[in-house]
Specification:
392 residues, alpha/beta, Enolase-like, domain 1, TIM Barrel, 2 domains, 14 helices
């Protein structure tokens, strides 16, 4: 059995272009699906997949680790960069899908079998841009409370929001009080039995990230995400040591070596590798092993398309440190036209029961994908009040 081709299909889905990866073999009807979605870098990733595929044509698709090593090591520039890491991830996920189909079992069975009966999911409430936050009123906090209540009514027992505004490197109390008001409104709306997460998107400076983390400590957050740049691991560690709230980070890290530094510094309580960026299922297994050794929890980043979600869930069913899966359920109204999924979601609690189909358990309708061709994403730009460049 040999790999005969690696193709990409791009599907525009509102905020991003999904990049589906299809690995074909010389076995009739046998192929695998992966995903390599990377916002604002679609053309770069598609080109990287085309480049890397030259290493794999003619190879045995069941030699997953061997092929991963080829993709990572055999072009001088190791696959640590986000574009190369994403390309490797998409192909790797597709190889695991093929392996599951060959053996007639779900991917999580290949990873050692299920360690849990279901995977819990959470949704994202979103948040505004800086210009929204700086015209604040009691109505803003009320809006967050209403959004939170709406998600609970949809069955979710956990949700995340960007209630922390963009700030300059040092600011006074106004953004702190704003974040407090928004989180208080959400907590008042849903009570203490619902888990609330706050995502800073790594926008604050380390100093401001610490102030936000300290201010939100009384609200019992499930975790507080990316309080400053992931490049500042010492500062993330300092913030984690200063509060009891679990700090989460890792969605922008590629490869086990970046996570090795993160866990050795004990910089967080929750690591968030993205299976479509960090190196696929193969590398995520190595990252999970480190997390387990340090008794850290894992909650993968997963705001992309349906193949990413299927891979994250398969990985979650077989990974002891996995605690919750990010869920995108209403990004585009035609999502279910593009994909059929093997897993089932129970609305009460928004928990996912295992996929019983071979591989990832998904099928992609290529004709439906072609109805949504590539479109340039709207580039996001953020500026501080004085015109200096900020982080989006």
């Amino acid at each position: 059995m040999k790999i005969t081709a690696i193709k990409t299909l791009v599907c525009h889905a509102r905020m991003r272009n999904w990049i589906f990866v299809k690995v074909l073999t010389d076995e009739p009807g046998l192929f695998g699906w992966g995903e390599a979605t990377l916002e604002w870098h679609t053309r770069s990733v598609v080109g990287a997949i085309e480049d890397i595929s030259q290493l794999l044509i003619g190879e045995d698709p069941t030699r997953i680790e061997y092929l991963w090593q080829m993709m990572y090591r055999q072009h001088f520039w190791h696959g640590n960069g986000i574009v190369r890491g994403t390309a490797i991830s998409g192909i790797d996920i597709a190889l695991w899908d093929i392996a599951g189909k060959i053996h007639g079992v779900p991917v999580h069975k290949l990873l050692g079998g299920p360690v849990r009966d279901y995977v819990r999911t959470y949704c994202h409430l979103g948040g505004g841009k800086m210009e929204d936050f700086y015209e604040t009123s009691p109505a803003d906090a009320k809006r967050f409370g209403e959004l939170a209540q709406g998600m609970v009514e949809e069955g979710f027992t956990a949700f995340k929001s960007m209630a922390v505004p963009e700030t300059m490197p040092i600011e006074g109390l106004r953004p702190i009080r704003y974040a407090e008001a928004c989180v208080k409104a959400m907590r008042d709306a849903v009570g203490e039995d619902i888990d609330i997460m706050v995502d800073c998107h790594a926008r604050p400076s380390p100093a401001m990230g610490l102030r936000f983390a300290t201010a939100l400590e009384p609200y019992g957050l499930y975790f507080f995400e990316e309080p400053c740049w992931p490049e500042s691991m010492e500062d993330i560690a300092r913030i984690q040591r200063a509060v009891s709230t679990p700090i989460a980070t890792g969605e922008r890290l590629v490869g086990q070596h970046a996570f090795k530094e993160l866990v050795e510094k004990r910089a967080c309580s929750v690591i968030q590798p993205d299976l479509t960026h960090c190196g696929g299922i193969s590398e995520a297994r190595r990252i999970a092993a480190m997390a387990e050794a340090y008794r850290l929890s894992m909650a993968p980043h997963n705001p992309q398309g349906p193949v990413s979600t299927a891979a994250s869930l398969e990985f979650g069913f077989a990974t002891p440190s996995y605690i919750i899966c990010e869920s995108v359920h209403e990004d585009v109204p035609w999502r279910q036209d593009v994909v059929s999924e093997g897993f089932t979601v129970e609305k009460e609690g928004r928990i996912v029961r295992p996929n019983l189909k071979p591989g990832l358990g998904i099928e992609i309708d290529e004709d439906e994908v072609r109805k949504h061709p590539f479109e340039q994403e709207l580039l996001q730009r953020s500026f501080y009040s004085d015109g200096a460049v900020g982080d989006w």
